[in-house]
């Protein structure tokens, strides 16, 4: 059994493998024999998942785990409406977008109706990574420059171009001279009166650096909840001055909505709306099809026109009818089950409960987030406390509650459940978390 040489928050490292059941050990051995070492398992004791339903995952012994982490099955694991529409479409036809098919047009009209009117064109991909890759190509072609800015611990994907703006992939992940990293706001510690302007000043400095390198400035890509930067959510509108700085310099603002999008933040469909901004390009992925691969790039007609006129872009499986059926089902469920209302209600309960817990445990350095995308930060004095975050995540796993840790110093719990997560589910998570902090030694 091998250990991972590259640390990842909450990763299985093999040190406890002898404590696992023989069948689990055997499955791990078989996995390591065939899957490349770039793969990572979660948790000190990995979970063997056999099935899922709603907000629950089940192991081979039918033990159920409360899923407070997976944003991909946005409307819940194995949702029957998603199953039905996908199965029906599989029995009809599944082909590419070079034929004239009505479902992709119907869905596009419906999707774009959820955006500001200026964002009126969409291109489909299979993944968020592909959508990021395409967004960078469009921005660079539109501006004639190569330079891009991203936050210092961002994650935007796994293609070569997307990985180059994903410093959270680790110190050995290549970041070229056409990318400048800027420190994200620390919404727990920065002065709220100056935080937005300070961030914009860092963006302006990065623009100048890119121009000094001779690569020019094409644009900036930001995850609208800054998930990998430790979940930086408030105050709302703190991104607006940075957007102005980008536009004043002739650049393109790319909003990465793969994680915050589709109502996860509760009050709005898209994270950028909380900041009162209108991006030039918007990237979608993961929860869009509830696990069926589909992503998209939504953009302003003016930004998309030149690239579309001059360069062929074709993605064989992007926007195929089966994936569009899954995406249609997701919108149906969000609307018919009033999930945005549920996100606000459950998110409020979670946030209040987390703040109450924080007030009783001095190891908690802050609580933040919006809707069902929340974070709890652990500290030891003035230092980040990744060890406590890891212990909490693994102890909750033993209690059959699944979350993870994130952030530049890996000391931030990331709570990001499927959208049907109710106040009752929130209460269970809060009760177990409080008990862990009382009883698990630091």
What does this structure look like?
With 442 residues, the chain is an alpha/beta fold. Strand 1 (49-53) and strand 2 form a beta hairpin. Helix 2 packs antiparallel against helix 9 (321-336) and helix 10 packs parallel to helix 12 (423-439). The strands form 3 sheets. The chain has a 7-stranded mixed beta sheet with strand order 4-10-9-8-7-5-6, with helices on both faces. Strands 11, 12, 13, 15 and 16 form a 5-stranded antiparallel beta sheet that branches. The protein starts with 21 loop residues before the first helix and ends with a helix. It has 12 helices and 16 strands. The protein folds into 2 domains: 47-75 and 339-439, Aspartate Aminotransferase, domain 1; 80-336, Aspartate Aminotransferase, domain 2, CATH 3.40.640. It has helices spanning 22-34, 80-90, 102-112, 128-143, 160-163, 195-212, 240-248, 301-310, 321-336, 339-358, 386-398, 423-439, and strands at residues 49-53, 56-59, 64-67, 119-125, 148-151, 179-182, 219-223, 252-256, 281-284, 295-300, 364-370, 373-380, 383-384, 401-402, 404-406, 412-415.
Task: Describe the structure using short key phrases.
442 residues; alpha/beta; Aspartate Aminotransferase, domain 1; Aspartate Aminotransferase, domain 2; 2 domains; 5-stranded antiparallel beta sheet; disordered N terminus; transaminase activity; PyrdxlP-dep_Trfase_major; pyridoxal phosphate binding; aminotransferase
